[in-house]
Each structure stands twice: as C-alpha cells, then as structure tokens.
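hey so i finaly got around to running the thing on DUF4440 domain-containing protein from Granulicella tundricola. pasting the sequence first so u can double check i didnt mess up the copy paste, my clipboard has been acting weird all day
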Amino acid sequence: MTEPSKMSHRYYFRIVRGTYPPLMTTSVSNRRSFFLSAASLAGAAAVSSTLIAQPTPTNLTAFLQTYDEAWASHNPQAIAMLHAEDVLVVNRFGSMLEGRAELEKAMQFLHGPGGPFHSITFPRQKLLVSRMLNTDMATLHARWKNPTMGPGDQLAHGSQTPWVDLLSTYLLMRRGKTWQIVQHDLHSVDPIKFPFKTKWNA
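ok and heres what it spat out for the 3d tokens, dont ask me to read them lol
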C-alpha cells in the first residue's frame, strides 16, 4: 500500500504495517502480545485522528481583544453574550456564577450605574499561552488586573484603589466563526521568587 499524500495541515497519517504469526499457532503469551500490540496501534490511530493544525495566534488574541472591549463598554449584555448559555464562571473570591442569565445579573451590579466597576478603566489582558484541544475547543491563559475590593463589594479605596494581579483562564467553544466562553476561572496571583527559572517565572 502506498503512503497517502500530505494533508493541507502539517499533520498527516502514515499506514503502519506489520507481520504477525498466525493466531492459532502461537502460545498464550504470544497471543496476549498480539492483542496488546493491536490495541496499541488502534489507540495510536485514534489519537492521531484528533491532531489538528494550530490556529494563527491572532485568532485567539482577537477573542481577548473582543472581551476587553465588551468589559470596557460597561455593557452587561455585551459581556454576557460572549458566554455560552450554560457557562460556569468562578471569580477570584471563589464565587460561582452558573449560566449566562446569572452572569448578566452580576455584570449589571458590577458595571451598571453606581456599580463598583462602572467608571473604572481596566487594563487590557495579555495572552500568555493558548492551546487547541480539538477543532472547536481551546484554552487561554492571560494576565489581567482587577481592583482591590472592600466590604460590601465596593472598591477598597475609592477611585484610587490598587490593582490585583490575576491569571484569567478561559475554556472556549467555537460557534461558527466566533468563540464563546464555556468556563472562566480567575485567580489572584501572589508574586513569589522561586530558586529556579522557567519561561513564566523569570
């Protein structure tokens, strides 16, 4: 059998050929090895079939820009519509919001007239790393800042409130040519110096 031609993406599949002794003439041990080998090949084929080409970085960066613009507009509905109907959001205080309707209510409180975020200009998010899970699902990790909050869900120090460093993690689902958030997790980041260096810990 000839090798298939390369697909348009960088990943392509190769037919794996092998010779095995007739099943009926092998020992129990050899038969077990045969089945394990066959299972491994089948598993490898299943994994290979899910490989996809990575999108251009601007694809997912554009999503963050759209989110930032909606957040800067202080429009609760514009923010909510970037989320799936059954979205789950976990904020940096550990509070959970289930569903787009509940999220929109929270955004009305935060961004509406008199709300703690209504007149604040937020810094833009910075994409750290993105990963495609399959053709229609991706994860994003971004750096962000939110204001320090005080009692009663108000800003801790009025208009001069300090900023808290956040790690913003999104699970995205592609709907046509757009992305929707199906889960969003926010974590406060406390800086710490480790005795080693990595790409993200300089």
